[in-house]
Each structure stands twice: as C-alpha cells, then as structure tokens.
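quick one
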Amino acid sequence: MKPQVLVCRRIFPETLERLREHFAVEANDADVVWSRDELIARLQGKSGAFLTGTQPIDATLLDACPDLRAVCSMAVGYNNIDVPACTARGVLVSNAPDVLTETTADFGFALMMATARRIAESEHFLRRGEWTKWSVDLFAGADVHGATLGILGMGRIGRAIARRGARGFAMPVVYHNRSRLDPAVEAELGARWLTKEELLATADHLVIVVPYSAESHHLVGEAELKRMKPTATLTNIARGGIVDDRALAAALRAGTIAAAGLDVFEGEPAVHPDLLTVANVVLTPHIASASLPTRRAMAELAADNLIAALDTRPGAALPPTALNPEVLGRRRL
Ligand code: DGY
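structure w/ (2R)-2,3-dihydroxypropanoic acid:
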C-alpha cells in the first residue's frame, strides 16, 4: 500500500500528479486555510505532509499526529516548523532553498527601487485623476544608482541582492550579519561588514533579508528607525515580525525615514491598519518568490524531498534539502 500524505494547500497539478505516483494523496484543491484542529485531524494516518510555508508544526501537533514521518515545505523560511521537536520524534524536515534565490532577489531589488522612486504612490495619484500638470519636484524620490545599499542578513538572497546593487547600479554595499562573510566573498561582492548600528546609520537603502526567529523579532523598531537617515528607505522581504510595523508606520508618517517597501507583515495576511493609511509605503502580499517558474521549482523540490524522505528502501537517495537528515540515518539503520 502507498503511504498516505497530506498536501496542505493547492499546488500545481503536475506536482500533485508526481506525488500520486508514490503516495495516496489527500489534496486541498479548494485551497482552504485549515485551522490547527483541522490540520491535526487530516494528518491522522498520514506519513508525510507537503507544507507551503505557513502551517505551524510544533511539538503538540507532532504528538497528536504519531504517524507523521516527514514534513516537507516548499518555502525556504521554516520558522513555522519546530525542527528540534521534529528531530526528537524522528520526523524529517526539509525546506526549499536555492531555487528561489535569484527570483526573490529580483523582487527585493524591484521593491527597493519602487520605494525609492515612489512608483506606487505616483501611480495611485495618477489613477485618482490628480495629475493635472508637470511640476519640478513631482514625486521626486531618491536615486538608487550610486547610493549606499545596506543589507541586513547576508545569506544567499542577501548576497544576490548585493550583486545586483554593486554590479548593476554601482552601489557601495554595506551589510550586517551575525557572522562575517569570508574576505574573498566580501571582495567578490564589494561588500563591507558593519555593526547593526553602523549599518542603520550608513545605508541609503536598507534591505532586510534576515530569517525570523525569537532573536530577530522586532529587530527593527522605533530606536533602530531613529538611527536611519531621514532620506533612507527600508525594504522588508524576509518575514513579518522582524520590523515593528506599528513603529514603522509612525516613523513613515513623522518623516523619520523617507519611505518603505514591505512584502511581509506581522500577522499576515492581516496588515497593520496604520500602514494602510500611510502614503510613502509600497505594500505587496508576500510575493517575492512568486514567479511561475520559481514557484514550480519550489513545489518540485518539496516533492523531491517528500518522495525521498518516505522511501524506506536501503540505499535510497537522501532528500536533497533536508534540515535534519540525521533522522533518516536512524530510521534506515
Ligand atoms: C519563503 O520561501 O520562505 C518565502 O517567504 C516564500 O514563501
């Protein structure tokens, strides 16, 4: 009998077909966001779960779903999964790195440019029929080329953004990361490490790409925004909760910084109401990785992981991007 798996949200039909070759699949074609209780109920008897990035997997859920052997997510961020709790229970976890790096960096750069050049704000003005004449400073924003690009969190996506800025737009790049990059990588990117405080004060355009964790919760709040230049922009494509949205809305209104671009929000899909009434912020619904080829690649990678994770044959291939592959070592002994 094929193992049973749950696909937690609607995915591409070709990925579903592939999963059906290996598993008895319960899909979610209606794309319903299941409550935690419903998720637990649907996971009964399932060996695997195909996650799309938001389903919370913690110790309580795992204890309520004793058949679960693998949770494979098509997102790179995995702050929704308690990996140590999974490892302790022999549940393999995988995420989907690399396949979305360049697409997400493209979007981060685009959002930063839209923010600096006031593209959304000016488009809304035009659509409202308010464009009646040319003016010398009509929606005059900040330059991107040659300005200092600040990157908070220099992982794969941060580095891809740094390359775009340094090579395409002649931007000096400064960054802060817990661990400094290798000097050869710094030289290749033309990037200079700064303390977080120095970074905030130096960047003309700050892009946030740090993973979410208890340590990065409200990493940028009122005090940090006050350290930034009044002409600076802030772009967040990482996770909601890293920026204090209420403090950011207040800072945008007060002119503490010039503008912001946000693709992620604390408590999304809800958006802090203060942000909705501020003009100098560009808001997008968590779509940084959403090009069709990339979303397909993310889904395929999650499927690769799930298929390999539940393959119990001796010598079976390892899931390509497992976060706790040691679990399989124990299981396949
Ligand atoms: C991720 O993969 O973590 C992105 O936020 C897209 O969901």
